[in-house]
Amino acid sequence: MIRSTLTIAGKDLRLAFAGGQGPVQAILLGLLLVFLFSLSAAPGDLFSSQQGMAIFWLCSSFAVVLIFSLLFRFEEENDTATALILSPAPIQSLWLGKTLAGAILLGLCQIFFFLAAVVFLSLDVQGSPALLLLMIVSVDVGLCVLGGLMGAMGHGQGAKDTLLTIILFPLQVPLLLGGIRIGTEVLYGALAVDVAQWFGLILAFDAVFSGAALFLFSHVFRGE
Description:
Layout: H1 2-17, H2 24-39, H3 49-77, H4 81-86, H5 91-120, H6 129-154, H7 160-187, H8 196-220
């Protein structure tokens, strides 16, 4: 399964960057949101760490929708979904591969989002960068797990993007709240013990929905 997962992830990443496309739409949308929010502050006012992290995760949330819509569109445009389902590789490796590819693309987008937040929103990291990175990775896992499952549910349907958006955003709420709260505390210099409960919530969310996605993916993904 690991080999087939990496093969699918590599295939999706090559297609995503073919012709210089990549996650350009997601990055541009995120940068636009950061810039627009920066204009809402009065001259001389600074954004709080909580506001900055909320904007960062808002950009990431929209990016997940665009990224997984792109990844599942590959199977429709190239008419390869049925071939993947009939291949000897476990069907779960298709979900794992797309989730991995989506996580890599989301992480790339977030580099631009965070740098833009530092420049335009004056975010100041006073705490541990390693703890901040751990928080981002933990939340990203949950976001991409959901993105992969919801993308499969919308695959082959005319209104898949609408379905993905309507279902995905409410499910993201616990992850986004945890990311905002931990990010705010870490930016102020908090230690891991101070945000342990929020980390527990995020990791529990990741575990529950990862297990659910592994079980449900073969039932919700359709190759037609």
